[in-house]
Write a structure and sequence with these properties.
Largest sheet: 2 strands, antiparallel
Order of helices and strands: HEHHEHHHEHHEHH
Strand content: 5-15%
Number of helices: 10
Distance between the termini: 15 Å
Length: 180
């Protein structure tokens, strides 16, 4: 594994390891969802909250199936790195198979939470706030928004996001173009 690829794997692992204990568990995925919900003043029992928690749980189950080689219910850094290194570069960017149903379900649920007025659209402020809560600098989030907002109307819908993911790659939309 190249040093650069290991650094990307470690960055994603560290974002997922919400309690910083050096392993990923179902609790980390649930805590990640709850943290995002709390940032938006939503509870886990709200409709958006339940959808996000369920999507994160499904993602954990898929990740555990693919990555947890010793089946102990925990993914350590080495297991994650080995799995990550096995992914094609286009998939490694997101830390999971790009466009996999589980990843897209989590992103859709996050998008819905970040759409504060529930009109199905995010403006630049909503988008940069969502990405900033996920550790992405405003500059990079703004550049990603500009990729997604191809018609320049200042608003993006989920369909704009998924269409741009196909055109530019999921990594560019989540972390900004030119990352890595």
């Amino acid at each position: 594994m190249s040093v650069k690829r290991a650094a990307v794997a470690d960055e994603i692992f560290d974002r997922l390891d919400t309690n910083g204990d050096g392993v990923l568990t179902a609790e980390d995925y649930r805590a990640s969802a709850e943290q995002l919900l709390q940032s938006y003043g939503m509870g886990p029992h709200s409709p958006k909250g339940r959808a996000l928690i369920e999507a994160n749980q499904a993602l954990w189950e898929r990740q555990a199936e693919l990555v947890d080689r010793d089946h102990d219910g925990r993914i350590d850094r080495q297991e994650y790195r080995e799995w990550f290194d096995s992914l094609p570069a286009s998939e490694a960017a997101s830390g999971a198979p790009s466009g996999s149903p589980e990843v897209m379900a989590v992103l859709h649920a996050q998008f819905t939470v970040a759409d504060r007025d529930a009109d199905g659209l995010m403006d630049l402020h909503d988008f940069t706030m969502w990405r900033e809560l996920k550790g992405v600098p405003v500059r990079d989030a703004t550049a990603a928004f500009e990729l997604i907002d191809s018609d320049g109307d200042g608003a993006i819908a989920w369909q704009d996001f998924t269409g741009s993911a196909a055109a530019h790659g999921l990594e560019a939309l989540l972390y900004g173009p030119g990352r890595g």
